[in-house]
TrEMBL record:
Name assigned to this protein: CCHC-type domain-containing protein
Recorded superkingdom: Eukaryota
Organism in which the protein naturally occurs: Coffea arabica
Residue stretches making up the DUF4283 domain: 35-113
Pfam family, one: DUF4283
InterPro entries the UniProt entry points to: At4g02000-like, DUF4283, Zn_knuckle_CX2CX4HX4C
Domain Zinc knuckle CX2CX4HX4C, first and last residues per copy: 175-221
Length: 299
């Protein structure tokens, strides 16, 4: 708020009552605070602006038609929701993920000023599938341990049915959407490393160049350089669970299910990522894990 005032003072030459202004007391805001204190603020992360009718219809269906639901549009992709029943409200805020038109709707309980604070909405829940697990790793304890690479683990589900791709675990985790989505993680055991691949359920659109949720390849400002030249995208639709599709923002994206171009080697029993200027002649992560008998990333 102080920064906004400073910008205005730098842009305009204020006179008279513009500069004198007025002073508000805390009790002046009580009516507005009471009207807001039980509300929910939602922000849609994405370049596509969702219209009021679209968001109202979506939340009514997704949240099970809560009684006396009201929706107020506060700005582009920012909305205020009022749900009278406290149980319905708690279930809505703690539930999700909520994805509308392939964009993430992040919900937070109202506190003063939160509607203007973008960083308050960069953390959201996502279901992540853990693949390439040995059968004796299919436990809640292992799932929770691997899920610790995310901000918070909320739940672990052991699927009883398998398929041609094998069995996997599901973890409900809190993800920092301001950072690149993780393609997987290396689990070290007995001096060797095993690659555990991640697939995201109901995953919102994200950039296949930098892996950040909320913008497309066309508007991405980051270019990743490998070996002195721009390489193909390091991320792609194989990170989505279920139907694989190319990014709607860039139909010409080059898709490869083995585009992990980071290079690794074992040194003194540890899995070491090679420096970029030493990549030539190094092995890919998949080759290293195969050579040690640790398996590879599942497709």
């Amino acid at each position: 708020m102080e920064g906004e005032l400073l910008d205005i003072l730098q842009k305009f030459s204020l006179e008279g009552n513009e500069l004198v202004g007025l002073t508000q007391e805390g009790e002046d805001f009580q009516t507005g605070v009471r009207a807001c204190e039980n509300s929910i603020i939602g922000r849609v992360l994405g370049e596509k602006v969702i219209n009021f009718t679209g968001i109202k219809n979506f939340v009514a269906v997704a949240w099970g038609y809560p009684k006396n639901l009201s929706v107020v549009e506060l700005g582009p992709n920012v909305f205020q929701f009022n749900i009278q029943n406290s149980e319905d409200k708690d279930r809505t805020v703690e539930g999700g993920p909520w994805v509308i038109e392939n964009q993430m709707l992040v919900l937070k309980r109202w506190v003063e000023g939160i509607e203007d604070y973008y960083k308050a909405f960069v953390t959201a829940s996502l279901w992540v599938q853990l693949w390439n697990l040995p059968v004796h790793w299919l436990s809640r304890e292992i799932g929770r341990k691997i899920g610790e690479v995310f901000k918070e683990v909320r739940d672990v589900v052991i699927l009883q049915m398998g398929g041609k791709e094998g069995r996997h675990l599901k973890v409900l985790v809190m993800v920092d959407l301001s950072k690149p989505l993780l393609r997987g993680t290396v689990v070290r055991i007995a001096g060797t490393g095993k690659w555990i691949a991640f697939k995201y359920e109901r995953c919102p659109d994200f950039c296949y160049n930098c892996e950040i949720v909320g913008h497309s390849e066309r508007s991405c400002k980051e270019r990743r350089l490998l070996g002195g030249s721009t390489d193909e995208n390091q991320y792609g639709p194989w990170m989505r669970a279920g139907n694989i599709r190319v990014s709607p923002q860039n139909k010409n994206v080059r898709v490869s299910e083995h585009s992990d171009r980071r290079y690794w080697s074992f040194r003194n029993g540890e899995l070491i990522e090679q420096e970029k200027n030493k990549m030539h002649g190094s092995q890919s992560l998949l080759d290293v894990l195969k050579a040690t008998g640790s398996g590879g990333c599942s497709n």
